Amino acid sequence: MSNIAHDHAEEYIRSLIKEPNDLQNELRKYAEENNVPIVHKEVAQFLRVLIKSNNIKRILEVGTAIGYSSILMAEAAGSGAKIVTIERDENMYDIAIENIKKAGLEDRIEVIKGDALDVLNNIQDTFDMIFIDGAKGHYSEMLKIVTKILKKNGIVFSDNVLFRGMVCSDELLIRRKITIVKRMRKYLKELSESNIFETVILPVGDGVALSTKIKEE
Q: Residue 154: phi, psi to the nearest 5?
């Protein structure tokens, strides 16, 4: 459980969500068995609905892992979609490439291997949505970069922003996570006070922040 919502509510909500195909089921089981962090089921469903309802086609993802979220976003966006996703771990990169091939989505998904901040600084394209799910202590630095390549009225979707409830309450705080929690609180404060973004923070999964770019810098 996430420490964000009541266990009974999370269990019930997740019981209502079915993976759309066998591959997505397979990837979720693999992630659970191998302790690979992927989006919670309710966050995955939130992404599907958000992408479909806003006709989002061009997406930049920070943090590919095994390719689960890249695949779900590419499928939700449909034909004509382009997902660019960044992964620094070589093993995860290789697994993601194989999974994307299994899904038959090589034409929609480009995986870039490298450190997120280095890669982001070299991306020239613009995007309808940025999905931030990388190193939790660097969200503020990532936001400064991606703001420039996000189109007006585009969306920044930040995952794990309440970080197992630790961001909300010091009573849940684990000492070795103090730096991450402080940085995440700073990130959420920056988003909430920004005159470039309008943001809502939701207790979904491990906490998500949904920000729309209301004006250029």
A: -75, 170
Which residue's structure tokens are 């509510």? 9
Query: CA 168, 171, 172, 177: dihedral to nearest 10 degrees?
Result: 90
Task: Give me the CATH topology for the region 7-213.
Answer: Rossmann fold (3.40.50)
Average pLDDT, the chain: 95
State yes or no: pLDDT of 3 exceeds 80. Answer: no
Residue boundaries of the structural domains of the chain: 7-213
Unique residue bearing structure tokens 């996000």: 150
Predicted confidence (pLDDT) per residue in 93-103, tens digit? 999 999 999 99
Structure-token pair, residue 166: 């630790």
DSSP-assigned letter for residue 169? -
Which three-class secondary structure state does DSSP give residue 51? Answer: helix
The CA–CA distances, whole Å, from 145 to 72, 99, 130, 168, 188 equal 25, 28, 11, 26, 16
User: How far apart, in whole angstroms, are the C-alpha atoms of residue 16 and residue 124?
Assistant: 40
Residue 78's nearest CA partner among 102, 108, 53 is 108
Give me the phi and psi of 45, to 5 degrees please: -70, -40
135, 216, 133: which is closest to 183 by C-alpha? Answer: 135
Using only C-alpha atoms, the chain has a radius of gyration, in whole angstroms, of 16
Interval 175-200: pLDDT, tens: 999 999 999 999 999 999 999 999 99
